[in-house]
Automatic annotation (TrEMBL):
Pfam families: DUF4245. The keyword Membrane applies. The chain crosses the membrane at residues 12-35. Keywords: Membrane, Transmembrane, Transmembrane helix. The lineage of its organism: Bacteria, Bacillati, Actinomycetota, Actinomycetes, Propionibacteriales. InterPro entries: DUF4245. This is DUF4245 family protein.
Amino acid sequence: MAQGSARYERSAAGMVGAMIVTLLVILAFVAFRALNREQLSVQPNQVDYLQVVKDLQGAGGVDPAYPERLPKGWIATRAVYNASNYAWELDVLTADGKYIGLRQAAVRDRDLLEDYGYDEVKQGPTVDIGAMVSPEWKSWSFKGHSGDTVYTTALGLQWGDEPNPARELGKGQTVLVFGSAPATVIRDFAASLVQDPRAS
């Protein structure tokens, strides 16, 4: 009995040793692959936002503000008309990966800011951006988004009556431009906005 037990103990010790050696080999292989593998880069999807603008204009009565062209290295990653809140939405990444968003809807500026997550806003100075769609833009500060720069402007009809969400896009609208890019870059983006019809 004692001899059989010794054989069992030696056999168990050998199995544990073999498992440790196997594990070390696997770890060495994984480390080797990690050191010699090329860095993976995930590129965001690029969308043809000008085609979306053209389609919206062709639908009749839809007049979104948009940049005629983006600077070199910039891409549009999202361009949609959000039917749930009657909003034109455009997302852009700058050449260095900074985000800029554009939203346009028939609601007051504070309501539009709240719709997109900017609560407890405080209006700052009005900025003369010189954009074709509207020269004067309001700047905003708020809690919880200290790294963002935010501007709004009114298009078409000035506010007086209650805004009607079914009103034609582009008339009595608020445009919101915001993002993590530097303030000067966001102002330049806002200044580039137009509402020119795209060629049919």
